[in-house]
What we know:
The chain is α+β, with helices and mostly antiparallel strands.
Amino acid sequence: xxxxxxxxxxxxxxxxxxxxxxxxxxxxxxxxxxxxxxxxxxxxxxxxxxxxxxxxxxxxxxxxxxxxxxxxxxxxxxxxxxxxxxxxxxxxxxxxxxxxxxxxxxxxxxxxxxxxxxxxxxxxxxxxxxxxxxxxxxxxxxxxxxxxxxxxxxxxxxxxxxxxxxxxxxxxxxxxxxxxxxxxxxxxxxxxxxxxxxxxxxxxxxxxxxxxxxxxxxxxxxxxxxxxxxxxxxxxxxxxxxxxxxxxxxxxxxxxxxxxxxxxxxxxxxxxxxxxxxxxxxxxxxxxxxxxxxxxxxxxxxxxxxxxxxxxxxxxxxxxxxxxxxxxxxxxxxxxxxxxxxxxxxxxxxxxxxxxxxxxxxxxxxxxxxxxxxxxxxxxxxxxxxxxxxxxxxxxxxxxxxxxxxxxxxxxxxxxxxxxxxxxxxxxxxxxxxxxxxxxxxxxxxxxxxxxxxxxxxxxxxxxxxxxxxxxxxxxxxxxxxxxxxxxxxxxxxxxxxxxxxxxxxxxxxxxxxxxxxxxxxxxxxxxxxxxxxxxxxxxxxxxxxxxxxxxxxxxxxxxxxxxxxxxxxxxxxxxxxxxxxxxxxxxxxxxxxxxxxxxxxxxxxxxxxxxxxxxxxxxxxxxxxxxxxxxxxxxxxxxxxxxxxxxxxxxxxxxxx
Length: 658
C-alpha cells in the first residue's frame, strides 16, 4: 500500500506542476497525451486504494464562505505537555522503555474525524476541552487525504503548519509593518480559522498526523510506531519520528537538532512518547499534563565573542537601525557575525561598546540576537548624520522606546520607499517588483522616477546579465509592468504617496470627481472638504502636493506611459456610512487588512490608523489584548469588536448603533 500511496503523491505533484505551467505560466512541460495518461493512472490508483488527496486534480475544490465557526467539545481533553531542556531528564523519564521521538511542530493542533472513508469533521484544539469546527478549511489543506481506504470510524490528531518559505512570502506581500505576522504559528492559526476557505487554500497549510485517538480496527497493534505506519498507509503525512531507547536517545536528539537548521517546517522542540500506548495510558495524567509523553525544548546555544563595531542601516521609512558586528562565531551549525540591535533603547540597555564581550544566540535557532554584555563600556556614539545621504538625524520616542531617524526628505532610502509604494499591490500593482529589485535598479541608474519603471526595456541586456535575473525573470517583470500600464485613477492617486491619502481616501476623492484625472489633480481645498472624511489639514496637504511643479511634471511624464480606465463602482448598501473604524492585530477572516478595509469602505465606512474620541469601533480579534490601541479604546469608551461581529453586520445588512 505504501508504494501506491507514494505513487499517488508523485502523480498529484507532477500533474499539478504541469497544470500550473500550462494555465498560469503559458508553457508546456508535458504533452496532452502524457498528461492524460498520468491522469488516468492517478484515477485508477485512487479508485483502487480509496485514497484521494485534497490537492488531487481529479477533484474540484468548492470554496465556501461561512458566517461563523461553531464550537464543539472534544471526546478526550487535550492536555499540554510537561517540558524539559535537559537530555538527562528525558533519559530518566524513558527509563528502560522504548520511545517515539518526533518533531514538536509549531502550528495549530487539529482533531480529524473520518467515517465511511471520508473526512467528516475537523476541530481545532481550542482550550483543550472545546475547539472550533474548521472542516471547511481542512478540506483545502495542501496534503490532507479527503478519502481513505479505511471504512470504519477514525479520529486522529495532528498539527496544521505553514512553512517558513510561505510565511516569508505572505509577509513580503503585506506593506503595513504592524500587520505583518509575527511567526508562522500566528499565520497558521489565522489561516485555519478563516470563514472563507479560499484564503486558507492560498496560504498553503500542511497537516502532519501524530496520534490516533480512536479507530475501529481491532487488528491494529497497540504501539505508536504501528499507528504512525498505518496512518501513512492511509495517505497521511505523519510527523517525522525516530524509534529510541536510552542507548540512542541522546544521539537522536542531536540528529534532530542538526536537521532543525534546514527544515522548512517550524518546530520549537521535540516530543518523546512511550511506544507502548497501553503502558502510557496506565500512568494516567496530572491535573495539567499527560504522563505518556514529554516535550523537549531546545537549549539556546550561546557563544561569547568580541563586538567589533556598530553599523547603522537606514530603512525606506527614514528609520536607522543599529546592527552589531562581532568576531565570527559558530551557532547552530552556521557562522554568525552580525545581529540586529533593533533600536537605541535596546542598545543602551545592553550598554554596548566597541571591544565589549557579548553573548550571542539564535532566537528560535534562526535569528541572531545579543543576550548579554559582560563589559558594558557604553562607548558607541549615535550618528548625527544619516549613513545614506549624510543628512541630519534625530532621536524620536515612540511608546517610550527611542528610535533614530533621518529627517532629510530627499534621502535615497526614502526615494526607494516611494518607489516601493508606487509598485505595491494596491497602488500600481506590479507583481514581482520587490524592494530589493528597486534598490538594484536605482543603484544601476535604471530608475530615477516613476515613469522610468515603464522604460526598463531600454536596459534589457544589462538586466538579463544581473545576478538573480535571467531571460525568464526579465520577461516576467516586463509582462507585469506592461499589465500595469492600464490602471485606474484610484490606483494612480494612491500610488503618489500623498500624506494621509490612503486607499480609502483616494477612492472617495476619485468617486467625488467622477474619476476625471484633470479634476482630481486640480481639486481645491474647498472642494475636498466637501467630501466625507476629508478634513481641512488633509485637504491643504493634498493641494500643496499638486501645487509643486516637480510633482505635476512627474505625473505628466507618467501619464505618457499609462492609460487610465474607469473603475467599477460598488453598489453595496452603505450600512457603515459615517462610521469610523480602527483595525489592529492580525486578521483571521480576510486575506489581509486591505481586504478588510475595502469591505468597510464599500459600505460607506472609514478606516483610520489611531483610536481617538471620534472612533466608533476598534476591530481586534484579541479583545483581551493589553495593546496600546485596546487600552486607548477602553479609556475612551470605544467598543472593541471582532471580525465575527463585523461579518455578522455585513451578512445581515445591519447598521450598527453608534
